[in-house]
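Curious: why this fold?
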Amino acid sequence: MTDINFIRSISNLNKNNLSTPVIRNKEFDVNSTFKDILNEKSKKVEVSFSKHANERIEERNIGIDENVTNRLNEAVCQAKDKGLKNVLVMIDNSAFIVSTVNNKVITAVNSNELKENVFTNIDGAVIK
């Protein structure tokens, strides 16, 4: 049979030693809202280019400058907001297939290659 005094002593120990844990977040202010933190994290999205995408960009003479990169970053943020994972991003006369899971451009197509092309395995499209 269990000793009731032993159980009471354990109960009292737990009651006396309870303290509120202090959570320290070094990265964000304690007064930040969830939306503020989410916006801050999403601003840091920068796409990278896969080896395949780099080869296609080079062989198809697709110009990638800071403007295009910024528009790709914006498109990825928009697609993530909608819950999309694999997205067709149209910028000027070029198309990019982008994975929003790892922020990576998978392939790129120029205007000459766009004609009569079928894009599969995409969740949506963003036109910039």
